[in-house]
Amino acid sequence: MAEQNILSADQSVLEQILSDINEYEENQERLEYISASIKDITKETDSTSKAMQDEISARIKESTDAICAGYDKAIDCDKDKIKQVQADRMKERIQTETASLRQENKELASQIERAFIQENISKITNNTFFLALFLSRKLKDVLVYILFMLIMCGGIPAVLYVLPFVPGWVPVVYTAVIALLFLIISRCVYINLIMPHYNTIIAARDTKYRIRNNKKIIKKIRHSIKKDDNDAIYGLESFDHKINDLHDSIEKTENEKQGALKEFEETVKPDILEEIQGRYVDKLELMNRELTKKKDEYTKLDDLVKQQRIYISSNYEAYIGKEFVDKEKLAELCNIMKSGACTTIAQAIAEYKNQH
Q1: What pLDDT does 4 receive?
Q2: What is the secondary structure of 332-354 as a DSSP string?
Q3: 160-204 pLDDT, tens per residue?
Q4: Do 308 and 27 form a contact (C-beta atoms < 8 A)?
């Protein structure tokens, strides 16, 4: 047909053109359908492969976590022991370096206790709060005294004053009563408790100040020890040996853990992969075969459609124009020729144009 001028051809040639166009469009639709099928199969294949990989990853992670859990627990236990030994080591050094001060405080406290027993002095006079109220000398005791007075004579009356159900005269009366009671109590305490044993109580107060100063020194020593790494003179080798043994234990456990993980990789993991992949392999192979089949079919049909497109363009559109390479218009041209009005395609085209 390509060798003849189809404009002078008869109805049979026109029907052949229409048939070729129908076949071309059907192949195009089939090509689109196959392309959509390829996308669907590819998507399903990817989804199935991902599900398989996710299951494999989850199983392997679960297994490795189970293996590591026991070893990690043992390692954490040894690390906690190291922290405890280090704390005991520090405590031992502090105990050694502050032993004399602690012993001195113990002896000073015993001296106060013996003096109070010998003179039959009430234990209340040896109380830190009591001394701060009635025999304060240091700044800290003075501040305790001031705070106590502010609470009793200022804070509580202020609270009473702002309470709506408390009459306004109550805070005033309360403050006056407290001041009077404090004066009476102070006088009684001085006359009956402090004055008969004044020198002993003052000596006890000063001794307590000395104990307090020793405690401050102990606190400073403790702080400096925590910053000082030079402790070779304190004989702490036993603690160092324990720490080294624990580090060796951790290293041994780590090596055992790595060995267990290696054994898992070499023996258990392949079994897990085989078991999981075995459940997916048939389905994946079926989809891959179908995908390969569809791709081959698509390639062949795509080549055919390209050839048909070239043929239609070269042999039909070149003669009758792209406008008439259309199923509906070709059908009308066939009807015109069937009516007997025309005998050639060129005449049918001319008649079509006259009618439209």
Answers
A1: 62
A2: HHHHHHHTTS-SSHHHHHHHHHH
A3: 888 888 787 888 888 888 888 888 988 888 888 888 888 888 888
A4: yes
